[in-house]
Amino acid sequence: xxxxxxxxxxxxxxxxxxxxxxxxxxxxxxxxxxxxxxxxxxxxxxxxxxxxxxxxxxxxxxxxxxxxxxxxxxxxxxxxxxxxxxxxxxxxxxxxxxxxxxxxxxxxxxxxxxxxxxxxxxxxxxxxxxxxxxxxxxxxxxxxxxxxxxxxxxxxxxxxxxxxxxxxxxxxxxxxxxxxxxxxxxxxxxxxxxxxxxxxxxxxxxxxxxxxxxxxxxxxxxxxxxxxxxxxxxxxxxxxxxxxxxxxxxxxxxxxxxxxxxxxxxxxxxxxxxxxxxxxxxxxxxxxxxxxxxxxxxxxxxxxxx
Length: 306
Ligand code: CP
Prior knowledge:
Elements: H1 13-31, E1 42-47, H2 53-64, E2 68-72, H3 75-78, H4 87-94, E3 100-105, H5 110-117, E4 122-127, H6 133-147, E5 154-158, H7 165-174, E6 181-185, H8 194-202, E7 206-210, H9 213-217, E8 222-225, H10 237-243, H11 251-256, E9 262-264, H12 285-305
Parallel strand pairs: 1-2, 1-3, 3-4, 5-6, 5-8, 6-7, 8-9
Helix pairs in contact: 1-12, 2-12, 4-5, 6-7, 6-12
This protein binds phosphoric acid mono(formamide)ester (CP).
Phosphoric acid mono(formamide)ester binds at residues 51-54, 126, 132, 135, 266-268.
């Protein structure tokens, strides 16, 4: 029984199989007009960083299951954090108004801090450059749905792997599967961090650091492209300029990719996937975002109804 969703290491394969099974049920529920299973339950969303997909899909998930939503968008500016209230105090207050709190914060580890003191479930919706566990759950669900399996796949993670919390969370999850091969393709200034590489070694996941995206694309089942996150560079504008535009998925890359492979991206994108790719059946990133609704409905059901 899982109480909080704070990091991808916490899940086991049994939990993942159950979650995916409930997510498939949620797809059916949506088609039949929704459900009232979470009637009288309240979800609070506390977002200290911008979001389109995560916040709106969580809010939609709650409403489609008959629950209510209270929300602070731009909490850094419009919540009492702007008056100096600590995260811990905010959580103590909000837990009196809600049954579950979904939090996105600019500091790595913030959701775990919240979970340590909260008396209701906490869901990490992204904590700085730390993790984004619910994104990795929907990423994995998408891979399973699109390719029919996870064990034995080769996956390229591309772009800002140092700051990309989605790539970090997905790496942790993939460490739970068999015969996975990972290729990290990142500009020099944003390479995958050592903590993830140590974890993968410990879990006997084969990984390679590569620089030629074209060569890698020809042999993988999944390209997981990510945005170079300008907002995480601070004053290091030169580093940002070195990293941006180095690895782009475009029509020329599609030519070398396997026929039965997919392109994922947590989104938002800037220029790292050319719009000309969108019409290709292997471009799965919009379907991936849609899957976020089903996975988040399933998570809310599991956390609130057991
Ligand atoms: N993928 C993702 O987290 O998107 P948002 O920032 O729009 O929530």
